[in-house]
Each structure stands twice: as structure tokens, then as C-alpha cells.
Write a structure and sequence with these properties.
Helix content of chain B: 55-70%
Number of helices of chain B: 12
CATH topology of the largest domain in chain A: Rossmann fold
Oligomer: heterodimer
Structural class of chain B: mainly alpha
Number of strands of chain A: 19
Radius of gyration of chain A: 26 Å
CATH superfamily of the largest domain in chain A: P-loop containing nucleotide triphosphate hydrolases
Distance between the termini of chain A: 62 Å
Number of strands of chain B: 1
Strand content of chain A: 25-35%
Structural class of chain A: alpha+beta
CATH architecture of the largest domain in chain A: 3-Layer(aba) Sandwich
Distance between the termini of chain B: 39 Å
Radius of gyration of chain B: 22 Å
Order of helices and strands of chain A: EHEEHEEHHHEHEHEEHEEEEEEHEEEEH
Helix content of chain A: 25-40%
Number of helices of chain A: 10
Strand order of the largest sheet of chain A: 5-6-7-3-8-9
Number of domains of chain A: 2
Largest interface: A-B, 49 and 39 residues
Number of domains of chain B: 2
Chain lengths: ~425, ~300
């Protein structure tokens, strides 16, 4: 076995939970509260606070040998990012120790430190320096970085005029030319278009094949399975599983409660969620309303989801959405009222909102449903893994068979045999 | 593809990163005061250079007047001072024309005040960097203060132009300008470090600093000469000259305009005070640094 390059022992990180911010509805309340706050603030200076603490990461130990690619998976809030932040020395652990052998490069965000007023060229140097490259190194790789990002015509344009795609490509390109012995990567593949993601994955593959050690945090199980030799699953800040990728991914997929029956009330009051206070999903019920499918959602059929939502006061929610993912985390469907331009009005207390998807273009299988309430700038309530549904196949026409390897999404198609070479038809079809 | 960094270069770098065994970094919880680790800061000098360069480049982007703001600010303050203090109040100016008397003081003062204000807000303003990448955090306030040198140079060029206009030749004491500028840099950075670290925990700092700068301006002989205080009680004068900027401002006039305000022995005491503030600030900053990423 080759040399151990990372050894973590009993790593823990404790955070303090901030005091909940009470809302002040009148100026008088606000004034009274601010005087109280100032008084409490002054008192806090003189005595240690006794706010609640929680462990974002607890007792994490692992070893990684040179050249291994470790994937880290887990729910939101499982401690993945915290672990990465400790390894990249952004934040200190509260307990434990890590030994790292070699130069570490961390990529927690694409385009860290980019300044919108500076040109692409200037940002390459700035970003490179921030990521730990020397000027000589950047000089040497400059042309390659520009070519990889595909921005050669815009090198001397301020990046504020870049499209978001160009911005991401440039940011990733600089990072991709970083050559540390150990690379820490967080979820960057979640952004950007498909081509860009492919490029990122390709580059990461290369990095791994060059014998560098990589730690990769992602929600995307497909990417994890393709890239990683080992995998760690975190849950509640602790290591829930650690070993060969296939085993850990299998454990991750089977940890759920399995699909919920149509028509059954799913209690969401204690679900794992993110967001502020004020709006909360209480429960959900779904079904297709089709007697033939016994109310179960089916390929090509409708899907209705009734959500019970608790609001603390009268509210207008700009963005309310249900989305459907594969169990591997790939987003397939996102039905957001923001797209309809139709904000949802909530009364104080419990409200019921019904989403209706007219035709569900998903092949039979199990899918995860996420619920979201918020605006373009803030999250009110977000349950990433609200419940699992099973889509069934209803129409078994013709031979009653489906291909062994079906895709996720069905399509309407037909087939016909035509005489002559195929090129002719293609040429004729062109305008 | 991917130009591979030569094995020896990588090994060199790893060796440089060592803490004990070559190439090995230990990450552990730290407690209490920490070493300044200036060696690490030195290793990141290229980043420091790029941060300064960014600040200089960006400071006046998307302003119509651009870098001329570096001149306009002290120059128009001088005009206002000349009008109200020089003309209307008749503040004595140690035998040189009042405009150049006040401008010679405003040049180092503006450098100091901008450096202090910007560095106090620098850490909070770099939230994005703090939470995404590791580097010695001291580089942030240091870079903002150093970036002010460019503004200083521009304003100083105007000062030379004004001396030409008034036909004033600098004395041989100009060489003393260098330590005086260093003194104002140390003071700005020292106080800036304290506030930068405090600002992360208590955003009150944002409101305290402008007020402090204003008070400090009046506690420094910028609009008037220190000679005005000659008939004050000696205790008050000692207290007054503890302010390092008194020595800087009076020293500028003495070195450039030949006024009779050579910094006395008190400048040594105030320099010592400035160095103590800087060292204390740096240690306090390092102590607070570990929670920056969590709290900011």
C-alpha cells in the first residue's frame, strides 16, 4: 500500500447556534428590542455566553493513501462542507487532529476572489494567486488556461460583461490548472451546463489519473461513482459508512424509508430541512387520481401533490416549488410557481396548496421529491428529501415489453423503413 | 495536457510548508495566543502583491474622475481649510502660506485616515475569500494599507507642484520623510488590525471608526500648527504628543517647508507607542483569526 497522505483522527467541529432573531413589527417594538439588544450585547462582553452549541462534525477519523480519490456524500447539513473547510484550513477543528503530507489546493467555489471590474486576464492572475499559484506558474500556464476556458476573444474584457457560463468556465479553468499534490473539491459540478460539467469531470478524471490525491464532495452520485475509489458517507456529523464506493453508495441509497404510498399523508414536521422561520411544510399527500393505476403516479400520467403549509403571518411566497430527482441526486423536474409568475398567498395558520403536473414524463422507477419555499434571495423552508415516490408503467401496449435498459425519460417516437441511403433523406430535410 | 510542475519545485514548496517533518502540515485546534508566523506571511508575498494590485486597480474603477480622487480629496480639504481656518479664523501657519501649510499635513493625514478606515473594514469586506480559501489573514488589512501608498504618491506629487508654485525649496531633512511615512503606516495598520478583528464580532466598529478618525483629525495639528498649544499645561502637551500623527504631520512640514517644528524626543515615545499598538494588534488579530470564517 502506498504512503498515507491524509490522516484524520477524532476530528470534531462545534458551532454555536445564533440567537433566533425575533421579528419586530412596529417601530416601538424595534426600538425597545434594540435597547434590550444593546444591553444584552454589553453584558455578553463581560460574561461568557451560554448559547446552545452543536457538533457539525464529530469524531471523524480516516486515512487516505497517495493517489486515492475519496468521495464524500451525505444529506445537507451532514458535515461534508465542514470537513472540507477543516482540511483546507479555512476553519479550525474544535477537537482532533489532521496530518497532511504535501501541498493542498482547495476548490470550494469557482472563481473565488474574482473581481467583476477586472478583466479576464487580471482575474486569472488574481484568482491563481489566491489559489496558491506563483506568478511564474501562472505566466507559464496562462495560454492553456485561456484556451481551456474558451474565452480568448474576451481576455481583456471585464468579467462583469461575461455570461455566467463564461465566468464559470474561466473560474474552473484557473482551478483546473492548479497542481497541488492533494486537491479538495466541493460540489462545483452542480453548476454550469452539461458540457461544462462533462469538461469538469473529465479534468478531474485526469487529475486523479496523474496520481494526485483528491477529496470530492458531491450530491451527484453518478459523478461520485465514476470518479472515486473510496467513499465516505456522513450523517449528523459522523461517519456513517466508509469503504469502496459501490458499497457506500448502496448504503446511501438504501438508508431511506423507501417509496411512500399514494394517498398516504407524509408527515414533514420533523423532516431534515433548511431555511428560516415563518413558513413550514407540514405534510404532503400525492396521487395521480387515476383509478386504473390505483392512484399511483404513472409514466405520462398526471401527478397531484397537496401540501399543507404553516405560515406565521399573512405572506406572499414568490417561489414555491416541488422538484423531482433521481435517487442519485440528478434534478429531473422542477415545478416552481415563479415560472408561472403566480406568487402564492398564505394566510396565518395552516394552508393547503395543490400542485398539479399534467403529464409526468418519467419512466417507471423510484424518485425523490424535494419541497421548496422562498424567494430568489432567501430560503423560507427547503426539504431536500421530503419523500420518495414510485412511478409505475401503465401502458403495456404492443408486445407488453420494455427494453432492459430504459432511460429516465420516455419519448414519443415511431419507426419506418425507407428505401435508399440515409444521407439522402438527411440532405432533403435541410432547408 | 496539463504542464506538470517539476518534481523538485513541488518538493521545494512542500519543504517550505513544513512544520517539523518536511512537507507535513498538522491541523489542530489552537488555544490562546498564537505566534505571528511572519514566515508564512512572507511565503504568501505574491498573494499580498496581487491583493495590493487589485485594490489599486479597483479603487477608482467606474468613477468618472478615476485616480484624480486621490488628489481631489486632500486638495479640496485644503481649500476648505484655507478658507475657514486660514482666512476667516486667521489660524497662524508657522510662517508659510496657509494652503501649503495645511496641504503638507493633509497628504500624510489622508494616507493615514484612509488606511485606517479601509483596513478596519477589510476583513468583513473579504467574507467571500475568508470562507472559501486559506491564506494568512494578516495579508488582507496589510494589503489595504499598502494600496494607499499609490494615492499617497499622487497627492505627494501635487504637494511638490505646490512647493514649486510657492517657491519653497525642500530642506536637506527630506530624507526623514521615509521614516515618517513608515510611522504613519505602522499607526494606521496597528489601529486598523485591532478594529478589523473587532469588526468581525461587533459591527459597531463600522460606526466607531469614522467618528474616531474625525476626533483624531482634531487631535492632530493638520488644520492648525502645534505651536498653537505652546501655552498649554505641560501634562496636556505630553499627552498630545503621544499621538504618533503629531510627529508625522509636524515632521512633514519641517522636512519640506522648513518650519521650526522638528520632531522632538516625544516622537520616539509616540513611535514606540505605535509599534506597541501594531504588535498588540497583530497578536490580537491572530488570536481572533481562527473564528473569522465561522463568524463573519
Amino acid at each position: 500500500m502506498s504512503e498515507i497522505v491524509i490522516r484524520a483522527e477524532g476530528l470534531g467541529k462545534q458551532y454555536r447556534i445564533g440567537e433566533a432573531q425575533a421579528r419586530n413589527d412596529t417601530l416601538r417594538d424595534a426600538l425597545a428590542a434594540s435597547v434590550g439588544r444593546a444591553w444584552r450585547g454589553l453584558r455578553r462582553l463581560s460574561r461568557p455566553s451560554r448559547r446552545e452549541r452543536f457538533w457539525a462534525l464529530r469524531d471523524v477519523s480516516f486515512e487516505l493513501a497517495r493517489g486515492e480519490v475519496l468521495g464524500i456524500i451525505g444529506h445537507n447539513g451532514a458535515g461534508k462542507s465542514t470537513l472540507l473547510k477543516i482540511l483546507s484550513r479555512i476553519t479550525e477543528p474544535t477537537s482532533g487532529e489532521v496530518m497532511i503530507r504535501g501541498r493542498v489546493g482547495s476548490l470550494l467555489e469557482v472563481g473565488t476572489g474574482f473581481h467583476s471590474e477586472l478583466t479576464g486576464r487580471e482575474n486569472i492572475y488574481l484568482n491563481g494567486a489566491i489559489l496558491g499559484m506563483t506568478r511564474a506558474e501562472i505566466d507559464r500556464k496562462f495560454d492553456e488556461i485561456v484556451a481551456f476556458a474558451g474565452i480568448d476573444r474576451f481576455v481583456d474584457t471585464p468579467v462583469k460583461h461575461y455570461s455566467s457560463g463564461m465566468y464559470l468556465r474561466l473560474g474552473f479553468s484557473v482551478a483546473a490548472h492548479l497542481e497541488p499534490e492533494i486537491l479538495l473539491v466541493d460540489e462545483i459540478l452542480a453548476v454550469g451546463d452539461a458540457e461544462f460539467q462533462k469538461k469538469c469531470l473529465g479534468r478531474m478524471n485526469e487529475v486523479a489519473r496523474e496520481g494526485r490525491t483528491v477529496i470530492f464532495v458531491s450530491h451527484n452520485l453518478d459523478a461520485i461513482q465514476r470518479l472515486c475509489t473510496r467513499c465516505m458517507m456522513l450523517d449528523g456529523g459522523q461517519v456513517a459508512a466508509y469503504g469502496p464506493t459501490a458499497d457506500v453508495v448502496a448504503a446511501y441509497l438504501s438508508r431511506g424509508r423507501g417509496p411512500v404510498d399514494a394517498g398516504e399523508r407524509v408527515d414533514l414536521s420533523s423532516a431534515n430541512r433548511q431555511g428560516g422561520s415563518g413558513v413550514r411544510f407540514l405534510s404532503a399527500v400525492f396521487g395521480s387520481g387515476s383509478a386504473e393505476a390505483a392512484n399511483r403516479p404513472y409514466t405520462g400520467g398526471p401527478l397531484e401533490v397537496a401540501l399543507e403549509i404553516q405560515a406565521d403571518s399573512e405572506r406572499v411566497v414568490e417561489s414555491l416549488a416541488i422538484s423531482i430527482r433521481t435517487l442519485g441526486g440528478t434534478l429531473l423536474v422542477n415545478a416552481d410557481v415563479i415560472e408561472l409568475g403566480q406568487p402564492v398567498h398564505l394566510e396565518p395558520g395552516a394552508n393547503t396548496v395543490v400542485f398539479r403536473i399534467d403529464a409526468l414524463h418519467l419512466n417507471p422507477g423510484r424518485y425523490m421529491v424535494s419541497l421548496w419555499a422562498g424567494s430568489t434571495v432567501s430560503t423560507l423552508d427547503y426539504i431536500e428529501e421530503a419523500f420518495e415516490i414510485e412511478v409505475v408503467g401503465l401502458r403495456r401496449e404492443a408486445l407488453g415489453m420494455t427494453p432492459a435498459e430504459n432511460g429516465l425519460v420516455p419519448c414519443a417516437f415511431s419507426v419506418e423503413t425507407v428505401p435508399g441511403p440515409a444521407q439522402r433523406m438527411a440532405r432533403e430535410a435541410l432547408p | 495536457m496539463g504542464v506538470r510542475i517539476s518534481a523538485s519545485a513541488a518538493a521545494d514548496r512542500s519543504r517550505a510548508q513544513s512544520q517539523g517533518e518536511p512537507g507535513i502540515t498538522y491541523i489542530r485546534p489552537s488555544r490562546g495566543w498564537r505566534a505571528l508566523d511572519l514566515r508564512e506571511l512572507w511565503r504568501y508575498r505574491e498573494l499580498l502583491y496581487f491583493l495590493v494590485w487589485r485594490d489599486v486597480k479597483v479603487r477608482y474603477k467606474q468613477t468618472v474622475l478615476g485616480a484624480s480622487w486621490a488628489i481631489i480629496q486632500p486638495f479640496f480639504t485644503m481649500v476648505v481649510f484655507s478658507l475657514f481656518f486660514g482666512r476667516l479664523a486667521g489660524v497662524p501657519s508657522d510662517g508659510v502660506p496657509y494652503p501649503i501649510f495645511s496641504y503638507a499635513a493633509l497628504v500624510p493625514w489622508t494616507f493615514f485616515a484612509t488606511g485606517l478606515t479601509h483596513s478596519a473594514n477589510s476583513v468583513v469586506g473579504s467574507q467571500q475569500l475568508l470562507t472559501k480559501v486559506y491564506f494568512p489573514r494578516l495579508a488582507i488589512p496589510l494589503a489595504t494599507v499598502l494600496a494607499g501608498m499609490v494615492d499617497f504618491a499622487l497627492a505627494f506629487a501635487v504637494l511638490l507642484g505646490m512647493m514649486l508654485y510657492y517657491g519653497i525649496l525642500p530642506t536637506a531633512n527630506v530624507v526623514w520623510l521615509v521614516p515618517l511615512v513608515v510611522l504613519s503606516l505602522i499607526t494606521a495598520l496597528g489601529v486598523g488590525l485591532w478594529f478589523a478583528a473587532l469588526n468581525v464580532l461587533y459591527r459597531d466598529v463600522r460606526y466607531v471608526v469614522p467618528f474616531l478618525v474625525q476626533v483624531w483629525l482634531f487631535a492632530t495639528p493638520v488644520a492648525y500648527g502645534a505651536s498653537l498649544l505652546d501655552n498649554l499645561d505641560v501634562h496636556w502637551r505630553v499627552l498630545y504628543s503621544l499621538n504618533p500623527m503629531v510627529g508625522v504631520v509636524e515632521g512633514f512640514r519641517w522636512a519640506l517647508l522648513g518650519t521650526d517644528t522638528a520632531p522632538g524626543p516625544m516622537v520616539l515615545v509616540s513611535s514606540l507607542a505605535a509599534v506597541l499598538i501594531l504588535v498588540g494588534g497583530a497578536f490580537y488579530f491572530r488570536r481572533m483569526e481562527r473564528i473569522f470564517a465561522d463568524v463573519v
